Amino acid sequence: MLRRPTRAVRIGPLSIGGGHPIAIQSMTNTPAEDADATLAQIDRLTKAGCAIVRVAVPTEKAVEAFKRIRAQTRVPLVADIHFQYRLAIAAIEAGADKIRINPGNIGGADRVKAVVDAAKQARIPIRIGVNSGSLQKEILAHHGHPTPEALCESALDYLRLMESFAFDDIVFSIKASDVPTTIAACRLLSRKTDRPLHIGITESGAVRTGTIRSAVGIGTLLAEGIGDTVRVSLAGDPVLEIHAAKEILKSLHLAAGPTVIACPTCGRTKIDVAALAEKVETMVSGIDASITIAVMGCIVNGPGEAAEADIGIAGGVREGQIIVKGKIVEDHVPEEKLLERLQARIQEVAAKGK
Fold first, then answer.
1. What is d(CA 190, CA 259) in angstroms, rounded to the nearest whole number?
2. What is the assigned CATH class of domain 9-251?
3. What is the DSSP string of 261-307?
4. What pLDDT shows up at residue 177?
5. What CATH class has 259-353?
6. Domain spans of the chain, in order of start
7. Positions of the chain with pLDDT under 70
8. Confidence (pTM)
9. Which site from 24, 166, 172, 294 is most exposed, i.e. has the minimal number of CB atoms within 10 Å?
């Protein structure tokens, strides 16, 4: 898939943009001052596949927690700052690999410059975050409401401000809770700058609806080659954001890993496809190989569909077939043995794929 060319930016040991792999990002939702709880959540996030973690730093006590967190984890950390420019400077001094600010709520140009100067000295990037709920008053008055053009104008105004301070290490995020607005704004901005772009749908909702809305927005942009880092913003456990983001990337062949497909079932189904598919997804979660596993409910068209996968099951009456690369390798396998036999075959196929 052809991706939009962007400049490369380093976030600690990780590079984004410039053709580097798209990185999955999330944000901790533990109390900002609780270093232990935040470290435990970061550990869960990184084990799930999160490459960049953003941490809110709203108070001086949170800065102290951030300093301890930085010392005890290796994942690239982004300090999320609003309103208080001194906290941005303190977070940089505490070891942030990047800071995220909305220059519009930091204060005047002199305060923005103070943050920029600290970032330059530390040689770290700044993410300019523009959201539909935090546009400059004059831009909002001109456009009437947070249109894609208003969001893009805001982002470019901030870019010119940063450039006036001779600062060039910039990443953008431009988001709205409305999916079409976000898509249009990111398309517009991507035509006007080659800075790396972090994409997502802000405040997308609870897990079920938020995942769907994020998949539509993020997937559309990625399919057009737009996006260098992604976050699926969900109300709930942020680890679920990582699972959703990985599936979005894998569906567009932008990330490695196993893909489990399953038939929706019908009146012919004589085997518990849903339960099997759930168990298979759990079973392959630790595999890195890019293989497709099919869980099909019947032997009428199951073998044909499973033939398109690397390995699959086609169910019968309390039994099933195991198909590898389009060939039936085991027939009349009892239902209670299917998962065990499938796991063994998956391990064989995954090992060959390495």
1. 30
2. alpha beta
3. EE----TT--S-HHHHHHHHHHHTTT--S--EEEEES-TTTHHHHHT
4. 87
5. alpha beta
6. 9-251, 259-353
7. 299-303, 353-354
8. 0.90
9. 166
